[in-house]
Amino acid sequence: MLRTTLAEETRPNDLGNAPFGKHLANAENLPVALGETDFEKARGVNKIEIRTGFASARITGLDGDVSKHRLRILNQVYQQEISLDFLKFSGDGMSFVVPDYRRDELIKVLEECGSSFEVKPDRAVLIVHAVNMRDEEGLVASIVSQVIEFGANIEHLGEMHDRLLMLMGVSGAEKARDGLKARYPGAQA
């Protein structure tokens, strides 16, 4: 039976024989050869970015066969070749994001459809990257509450296994990015 002392198990830069040793999970303690690609990222927030140039559309007041109304509107948007993202359905309508430079065309389409709508310019998507963020208990809730605390008004929220995407005004995204950067100083921004 191989025995190691506590001092042997916790030496920096020594992978040692300790199974599941916490020092193995710390990227700073892992030796990386010159020119070797570091392909695994440490857990936690590692990148914060803002993508601008969007307008958000919210269609409300659809009654009767709401699905049929949605399809009619989406078909008209498609016919104009307007790309959309962040599509979300609500009980009486839907919302989505389009490139800001197509905003006027979208407004024309929605007016022709006779829908009640609002289109907001100057929207941005704040993207917070974190490896396996769904597995880290409370991380998504913590990030969202911090963004709200920094004064941003989150209009849409989407998440993936490695990132959180939040739609908001440009100034709110900038405040949130700066606040998050201060809370997560190791994150690339």
Overview of this protein structure:
The chain is an alpha+beta fold and about 190 residues long. It folds into two domains: about 45-50 and about 125-185, Alpha-Beta Plaits, CATH 3.30.70.260; about 55-120, ACT domain (Alpha-Beta Plaits, 2-Layer Sandwich), CATH 3.30.70. It has six helices and six strands. It has a six-stranded antiparallel β-sheet, sandwiched between helices. Strand 5 (about 155-160) and strand 6 form a beta hairpin. Helix 3 packs across helix 4 and helix 5 packs across helix 6. The longest helix has 14 residues, at about 65-80. It is elongated, with a radius of gyration of 23 Å. The N and C termini lie far apart (about 50 Å). The relative contact order is 0.17.
CATH topology annotation of the largest domain: Alpha-Beta Plaits
Outline, from the CA principal axes?
elongated
> Helical amount among residues, as a percent range?
25-40%
Considering the protein shown, what is the CATH homologous superfamily of the largest domain?
ACT domain
What is the structural class?
alpha+beta
Helix count from the secondary structure assignment: 6
Oligomer: single chain
Low-confidence stretches: 1-26
Distance between the termini: 48 Å
Give helix and strand order, one letter per element, not per position. HHEHEEHEHEEH
Largest sheet, spatial ordering of strands? 2-3-1-4-6-5
Mind describing the biggest β-sheet?
6 strands, antiparallel
Rg calculated over all Cα atoms: 23 Å
Mean pLDDT: 83
CATH-level-2 architecture of the largest domain = 2-Layer Sandwich
User: Beta-sheet strand percentage?
Assistant: 25-35%
CATH class of the largest domain: Alpha Beta
Question: How many separate domains make up the residues?
Answer: 2
Give the tally of β-strands: 6
